[in-house]
What we know:
Belongs to the UPF0324 family. This protein is mainly α. Helices cover about 85% and strands about 0% of the residues. The chain has one domain. About 50% of the residues are buried.
Amino acid sequence: MVRSVVIVISLSVAVLIYLNLLNAGLALFAGLATALVLRHSYSGFCRKVSAQLLKLSIVGLGFGLNLQGLWQTTQDTFLITFISIAVAIATGVVVFKLMKIHHQTGLLITSGTAICGGSAIAAVSQAIKSHPDRTAMAVTVVFLLNIVALYTFPYIGHWLDLTQYQFGIWAALAIHDTSSVVGAASQYGDASLQIATATKLARTLWIIPVTLLASVWFNGHKSRLNLPVFIVFFVLASAANSAIPSFAPVFQQISEIAKFFLIFALYLLGLGITPQVIKQVDSKPLIMGAILWLVLAVVSLALVIYL
């Protein structure tokens, strides 16, 4: 019975998204409300499908971006990206030591906040051979804070009267996971979405040095590095857009379809947040994650406005 209701609601949400009646925030809320009311047992499946659908959507968005513009955005934002990541890592190390949080949990939350949420946590957890429970805790903390960011950032951006460019960079630097970055930016505007996507994926590349440093710190040797493959395909899609201008209408259509699936992926993300998931969160890691995130949000916003 529960399964049938979930399927009917999901199909209804898909139709509403197609009709442009649900944005990213409302889709996520619809998934969250459904999960909390029905208390279904498919949270793991929903989160897994959401993660894969998100990656495909990001690749699709690449067809709507010009490679030259992508490279220019990466160059323009390199300095503030580096500074924000350095501040996040330094602050995270200090906070988890002061709060006496286990070093593995603290480092995973720090990495997820500084780089790209779940992807960074997954890569670093392999490098430091983290206990599965600590990895799950870090992912859940970052996951919950992502949801807060998805709703609050667009309102703060409008309140501060940030431009599309400023908001896109700020969202890319201050929000953990790619899904929430593109979700928040899509609510702010198409230009913001393009800038945020390019900047966020450039930030994601910092997984490589951060994972290497974590491996050396814990193990004293290099560990296997995991660069998300979807980033490579995103760049290739952008390169195709630049190299074959005659296909521009087709590429634009692919990009629009990707936006649909992106919002549906956020619905599935919310659908994966059951009461059981929320109960797994310990207060100290959650407080640490919130402190670290607020510091990163304030510092990155100052960098965007004044640097």
